[in-house]
Design brief:
Strand content: over 45%
Order of helices and strands: HEEEEEEEEE
Oligomer: single chain
CATH topology: Porin
CATH class: Mainly Beta
Largest sheet: 8 strands, antiparallel, barrel
Helix content: under 10%
Structural class: mainly beta
Length: 240
């Protein structure tokens, strides 16, 4: 319940400047559409902990932006996207003596994600550069997951994988909770040209949902995504 209230509070805080400026700002009705592509660097916050390196996967999708207001020097817009992202985790496997093992394990989890963003920008509106920030809720749905395991698999004397803390249940666990939700925010720079808008952006996604059950009887108390996105976006105006 606290997670839901936090999400709703953030959405209300983001919406407040846009609704208040509707009365005193300069109205806009600009609509732009386009696409994006980039990389998603993911970790899963496991409890108990699983030691990981950043899991790199592709992300790409469609974006729709509606610019609705200018308030003093701030340009306000709403942005909706539909993206594909390959998340998951890559284990950093060490034995009890902290010596590298030849084992490798990577789990890819594919999502369709829908962020709904408030966007505030400062700079040149038509031709030139604009700095901006985006923030808002994001939902996602898992459409598949698969593991990539190295050919070498080190076992201990009991015949099970030799892992820190003896935690190996994750190797046989499919994603239990397909629906994902959380909060995303980021910074970027936009270059306005005569042929469209080019954006370079970085985002961070804080997941509020777990991929596995988190009851006392379950293996993990937490298993939520934390993702860094780096992406390029191109938008072209269809209403200006």
């Amino acid at each position: 319940m606290r997670k839901i209230l936090l999400t709703l509070s953030l959405c209300a805080a983001l919406a407040a400047p846009l609704t208040s400026t509707a009365q005193v700002g300069e109205a806009r009705s600009d609509l732009a559409i386009g696409g994006s592509a980039g990389v998603a660097l993911n970790r899963i916050d496991f409890d108990p902990n699983i030691k990981q390196t950043l899991h790199a996967g592709p992300t790409f999708g469609l974006a729709l932006r509606y610019s609705c207001e200018k308030y003093f020097s701030t340009y306000c817009a709403l942005q909706a996207e539909v993206n594909f992202a390959r998340l998951g985790w890559t284990e950093d496997i060490l034995n009890s003596a902290s010596q590298p093992l030849p084992d490798t394990y990577r789990r890819d989890i594919d999502y369709v994600q829908v962020p709904l963003l408030a966007r505030l920008g400062w700079g040149r509106e038509r031709k030139g550069f604009m700095f901006y920030l985006v923030a808002g809720p994001q939902i996602g749905f898992c459409i598949g997951d698969h593991a990539k395991q190295g050919s070498t698999w080190t076992l201990n004397e009991e015949g099970v994988p030799d892992r820190p803390g003896g935690l190996t249940a994750q190797y046989t666990m499919d994603v239990e909770k397909k629906f994902d939700y959380g909060i995303v925010g980021g910074l970027g720079v936009e270059w306005h040209t005569g042929i469209g808008h080019f954006m370079l952006e970085g985002r961070y996604y804080f997941g509020l949902a777990d991929i596995y059950g988190n009851a006392k009887k379950d293996v993990f108390g937490r298993s939520a995504h934390g993702t860094i996105y780096a992406k390029l976006t191109y938008l072209t105006d269809i209403l200006k």
